[in-house]
C-alpha cells in the first residue's frame, strides 16, 4: 500500500461486485475506517473519495482512533446517517500542506496547484458537512482537532457509538440469496 492508503481499512462486501454498487442494493457495501496517523497524499485520498461517490450502495464510515486530514474528509464523505466514531477518537481538519523544490517557475506552478486543491477540498467539506465555505475556510486555516461530539456538531459524522446494538435485528445477518451461506451484513 502507498503511504496515503496505509491505515485505511477496506472491508469488501462478501459478494463480488457489490463493492461497486452491484448486488444487494441497499445494504452497506463498503465500511471504510479512516484511521491513519496522518492523512497522506491528497490525490490518493481523492481517488478513494471519487470511488466512494461512484458506488451506489450506502457507505458506512468509522473513525477508530483518529481520522486526520484526508481521513476526516473520507469520514465526512460516508452516507449521511452512517458516519460513525468511537467515543475516544480524534478528528482533525486542516488546509493541505506540502513543499516545493526546483526552479522558481516550477515552485510557482506547485503553489498554484496546492491552492486549487485547497479550494477543491473546502468545497468537498462544505458539501458533506453542510457548513458554509466561509466556516470551512476559517476552521481549516490551522490544524483543528475535534472530539467526536465536536465533529458531530460540525457535520463530519453522525453518531458517536458507545455500545453495540443489543437486538439481533439491528446487528443484522442475512444471506444474499437462498443458496448462499449466511454471512454477516455490515450494519450502520
TrEMBL record:
<dbReference type="GO" id="GO:0009368">
    <property type="term" value="C:endopeptidase Clp complex"/>
</dbReference>
<dbReference type="InterPro" id="IPR001907">
    <property type="entry name" value="ClpP"/>
</dbReference>
<keyword id="KW-0378">Hydrolase</keyword>
<dbReference type="GO" id="GO:0033619">
    <property type="term" value="P:membrane protein proteolysis"/>
</dbReference>
<comment type="similarity">
    <text>Belongs to the peptidase S14 family.</text>
</comment>
<keyword id="KW-0720">Serine protease</keyword>
<dbReference type="GO" id="GO:0006515">
    <property type="term" value="P:protein quality control for misfolded or incompletely synthesized proteins"/>
</dbReference>
<dbReference type="GO" id="GO:0004252">
    <property type="term" value="F:serine-type endopeptidase activity"/>
</dbReference>
<dbReference type="InterPro" id="IPR018215">
    <property type="entry name" value="ClpP_Ser_AS"/>
</dbReference>
<dbReference type="InterPro" id="IPR023562">
    <property type="entry name" value="ClpP/TepA"/>
</dbReference>
<protein>
    <recommendedName>
        <fullName>ATP-dependent Clp protease proteolytic subunit</fullName>
        <ecNumber>3.4.21.92</ecNumber>
    </recommendedName>
</protein>
<dbReference type="GO" id="GO:0004176">
    <property type="term" value="F:ATP-dependent peptidase activity"/>
</dbReference>
<dbReference type="InterPro" id="IPR029045">
    <property type="entry name" value="ClpP/crotonase-like_dom_sf"/>
</dbReference>
<feature type="active site">
    <location>
        <position position="94"/>
    </location>
</feature>
<feature type="active site">
    <location>
        <position position="69"/>
    </location>
</feature>
<dbReference type="GO" id="GO:0005759">
    <property type="term" value="C:mitochondrial matrix"/>
</dbReference>
<feature type="region of interest" description="Disordered">
    <location>
        <begin position="165"/>
        <end position="188"/>
    </location>
</feature>
<dbReference type="InterPro" id="IPR033135">
    <property type="entry name" value="ClpP_His_AS"/>
</dbReference>
<dbReference type="Pfam" id="PF00574">
    <property type="entry name" value="CLP_protease"/>
</dbReference>
<keyword id="KW-0645">Protease</keyword>
<dbReference type="GO" id="GO:0051117">
    <property type="term" value="F:ATPase binding"/>
</dbReference>
Amino acid at each position: 500500500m502507498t503511504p496515503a492508503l496505509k491505515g485505511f481499512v477496506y472491508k469488501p462486501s462478501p459478494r463480488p461486485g457489490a463493492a461497486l454498487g452491484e448486488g444487494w442494493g441497499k445494504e452497506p457495501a463498503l465500511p471504510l475506517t479512516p484511521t491513519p496517523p496522518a492523512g497522506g497524499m491528497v490525490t490518493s485520498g481523492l481517488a478513494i473519495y471519487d470511488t466512494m461517490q461512484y458506488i451506489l450502495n450506502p457507505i458506512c464510515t468509522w473513525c477508530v482512533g483518529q481520522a486526520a486530514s484526508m481521513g476526516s474528509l473520507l469520514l465526512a464523505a460516508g452516507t449521511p446517517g452512517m458516519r460513525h466514531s468511537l467515543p475516544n477518537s480524534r478528528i482533525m481538519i486542516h488546509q493541505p500542506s506540502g513543499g516545493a523544490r526546483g526552479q522558481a517557475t516550477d515552485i510557482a506552478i506547485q503553489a498554484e496547484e496546492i491552492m486549487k486543491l485547497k479550494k477543491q477540498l473546502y468545497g468537498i467539506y462544505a458539501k458533506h458537512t453542510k457548513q458554509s465555505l466561509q466556516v470551512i475556510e476559517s476552521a481549516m486555516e490551522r490544524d483543528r482537532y475535534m472530539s467526536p461530539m465536536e465533529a458531530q456538531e460540525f457535520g463530519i459524522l453522525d453518531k458517536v457509538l458507545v455500545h453495540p446494538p443489543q437486538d439481533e435485528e439491528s446487528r443484522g445477518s442475512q444471506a444474499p440469496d437462498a443458496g448462499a451461506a449466511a454471512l454477516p451484513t455490515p450494519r450502520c
